[in-house]
Amino acid sequence: MKAYIYGILDISTIDYPQKPAMVIFVAGCSFRCPMCHNWRMLEVKPDQEVELSRVFERIEKARSFVEAVKVSGGEPTLYPDILLEIANFCKRKNLSFGFDTNGFFPENIKKLVNSADLVSIDIKAPFNDAALYSRLVGLDDGEKVIENLMATLETVFGSSSYADLRTTVIPSLNDEEEYFENIGEVLRGLGYISKAEKKKASYTLQEFEPANAFSHELKKIRPPSLDLLVKLAKSARIPQVYIRHRKVGFMKPLEEIRL
Ligand code: SF4
């Protein structure tokens, strides 16, 4: 079986909560988000085709210094069969397995969710603003994107996988308190609270880093302050909220941040 692989990072300490992980970046994505940092991997190129056996060899070599494998991209759920193969290999090798997703393919998520220990899902904007969502994913049909994302969230909340939700906060685009009130309300309605109470779900607000953005326009935006992230995080009014910002590091619990 072949996969489209942009690259592999042998070890990362910021891609899998609490575990050093190998990160496999697949090529290809259904979205064109202006804030994307991984825009070089959005198009699939013929020279990225790799035999999965070579990926397994690489995982085998990394086994002594990682505890998990995370598939990122690009959009990993474009390739459910590949992800299932990697998940099964990780299980045999006693490694945790997770993947990133933009949530656009709920049917593929259903196939994958019970084989993953972790599903990291992007929430780009509030659920009640299809125009803003369209803008932040670079597609016309924001309503469909939101509908599919909600179906994905419902599936992951109903599974045994850890639901690692994230929003990248971009000043002047998605940094209104009312947006996070809406996100919190919708997550509560979809079943987030009971999963969070079991420590199987969390929501992270992360700092936008303009330097690597896909859109030249967004490169001019200043990154959000820690104060802003904390204010917005509180607006969501849900438990298990974390902040990712250069001043506090990777996934700092909201309640531990002193401004
Ligand atoms: S941010 Fe994620 S979903 Fe958006 S274009 Fe980049 S890889 Fe695709």
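qc> DSSP finds eight helices and ten strands in the chain.
qc> done
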